[in-house]
Write a structure and sequence with these properties.
538 residues; alpha/beta; 5-stranded parallel β-sheet; two-stranded antiparallel sheet; 68% helix
Length: 538
């Protein structure tokens, strides 16, 4: 098993990076790695690994849903009103019904089997949509109207809805449950029970996620049982995984909804803790996504897939361009979204991968007639829409959405912290360098040390300043820059060039505590946060 995991991580990472270098989504390379390593290719994966693929997928889904919850913004969701709720119901419902009708015509499925297929194909992929929407939030695309948040929330709700309907239909087709529920003289059919099951699953998930968030905060903040960010991540991940496994053992609540609620509530309860966990789950997803998509590729059966290519493409087109498009229109009706923003839902809200991989093979294993064709269509939807969605989201967002201001407390970073330390050749520079080094060690940041050369500076003084910089920042990634020009203007230009997160400079000892003209200019004009170091206090 260990050897198989090494193959998965090694080949998946290399081919994923190869796809990235070709301007393709990395998941294309990872799926290709799965095809290469799986039974259809070199057959390098142990049967025990393939047999536990569902557990690995559950782990990956847990990670991606925690990322989604930690990236949600309550203010933006409230701004959207019912749009997020409608996006969670109407597009998925429209696609499921459209797929069912097309399957009855093209594949001669009966209605329950066709609707079962519609539930599989109508579910949206957290593995594609969540990273895409969080990336848009980092860059500010659509954040003014909360569009990424609405899509994130709607995607999670739609998956909960379709998974519940899928379970009900599977039970009906395999006759593993009773015909309904009898309450006195009233008998409810499984179809009539569906609204109650849906309400129970969603409300139970919300409640348990809320309680879990309080429990995680109690352990990490109040009791302080952990000593570093890795232990923080471990506690939060164990709590989230417990919710997923608990939902499987006691199917009275949605584990997906509970995990996403856990992340969302942590943002509202303790923003600094949520920010630390967001960074940790970003790193964990870097591993989980490789395992997820490599196992997807390994599960694809090409014989059945080839035979279903024509009908499958038509069914996918009908489901997306007719059923889902009608749902998008109804979901955003009366909202403040423009026509271009509504059009973004086509690339931003159509990808399939995670859910299809998790449940696509279940009808075949349960003996549902046509299960092999259902599995083939699930695989086809992954191969077509997952790479297309991962490419289309960042490609069309700048063309269809407006860029707004980013809230740094609600997003994670995809680049290191950069600090700018502005120093002169006086002894006061040591205090600035010491402060910069301390901050950089805390955040594993990069320091740009800038000295603006004046007419009074001599080469030996500048060389001595560079030597002092190297001494203070010996264990820190740093650059030493000497430039000429107006001091304040040069500092601001350099800060913009390096996209610095914070500027650090010294306070000269003027009478009555006044600060110098350069510091006054920077404080009045700089858009970057600044730290003013008083050498007398260091």
């Amino acid at each position: 098993m260990l050897g198989s995991l090494i193959w998965i991580l090694g080949v998946g990472f290399l081919l994923g990076q190869g796809a990235r270098s070709l301007k393709l989504p990395p998941l294309v390379g990872m799926i290709g790695a799965g095809i290469l390593l799986g039974p259809q290719g070199w057959d390098r994966l142990a049967p025990t690994v393939l047999a536990t693929a569902d557990q690995w997928r559950s782990l990956a889904v847990m990670v991606i849903l925690m990322k989604a919850g930690l990236g949600l913004d309550q203010d933006k969701l409230q701004q959207q009103g019912t749009v997020a709720l409608r996006l969670g119901i109407l597009p998925a419902t429209g696609e499921a019904i459209a797929v069912a009708i097309a399957a009855m015509v093209l594949l001669q499925f009966d209605f329950p089997t066709a609707l079962l297929l519609g539930c599989i194909l109508g579910a949206e992929s957290p593995a594609v949509i969540v990273p895409g929407m969080l990336r848009l939030k980092q860059l500010g695309w659509g954040v003014a109207k909360g569009i990424p948040d609405a899509i994130l929330t709607g995607s999670a709700l739609s998956d909960v809805l379709l998974l519940l309907v899928f379970s009900l239909l599977l039970n009906l087709l395999t006759h593993t449950t009773s015909a309904g529920l009898t309450l006195g003289s009233l008998t409810l059919t499984p179809l009539q029970l569906l609204p109650f099951q849906l309400l129970t699953q969603i409300s139970g998930g919300l409640l348990l996620g809320y309680l879990a968030a309080h429990g995680v905060r109690l352990i990490l903040v109040r009791w302080r049982w952990t000593q570093n960010p890795v232990q923080d991540l471990l506690v939060a991940a164990l709590g989230a995984m417990g919710l997923v496994l608990g939902a499987e053992a006691l199917p009275l609540f949605s584990g997906y909804m509970a995990v996403m609620t856990l992340g969302f509530c942590l943002v509202e309860l303790d923003a600094p803790l949520a920010r630390r966990l967001r960074q940790g789950f970003d790193g964990l997803w870097g591993v989980a996504e490789i395992i997820l998509f490599v196992l997807l590729g390994a599960a694809i059966a090409f014989e059945t897939l080839t035979s279903m290519l024509g009908p499958g493409l038509l069914i996918l087109a009908v489901g997306t361009l007719i059923g889902r498009a009608i749902g998008w229109g109804l979901a955003t009706w009366g909202s403040n979204w423009t026509g271009r923003e509504r059009l973004f839902l086509l690339p931003g809200n159509s990808a399939k991968a995670t859910v299809q991989a998790a449940i696509g093979a279940i009808p075949l294993a349960a003996g549902v007639p046509g299960g092999d064709r259902i599995l083939a269509l699930a695989a086809l939807s992954i191969l077509i829409t997952a790479p297309l969605g991962a490419w289309a989201i960042p490609t069309f967002a700048p063309k269809l959405l407006q860029q707004g201001r980013v809230d740094p407390t609600k997003t994670s970073r995809d680049r290191p912290i950069t600090l700018l330390a502005a120093v002169d050749t006086s002894p006061h520079a040591d205090a600035v360098l010491t402060k910069a080094a301390d901050l950089a060690r805390r955040c594993d940041g990069h320091v740009v040390v800038l000295h603006v050369v004046t007419s009074t500076d001599t080469p030996p003084q500048i060389e001595a300043l560079e030597a002092r910089t190297a001494q203070h920042l010996a264990d820190i990634r740093h650059d030493f820059k000497t430039l000429t020009g107006d001091i304040a203007a040069t500092i601001l230009t350099t800060a913009d060039h390096y996209r610095v997160d914070e500027m650090i400079f010294g306070k000269r000892n003027h009478p009555h505590g006044a600060i110098g003209s350069v510091a006054q200019t920077l404080l009045a004009t700089s858009p970057h946060p600044m730290i003013l170091v008083d050498p007398a206090l260091t």
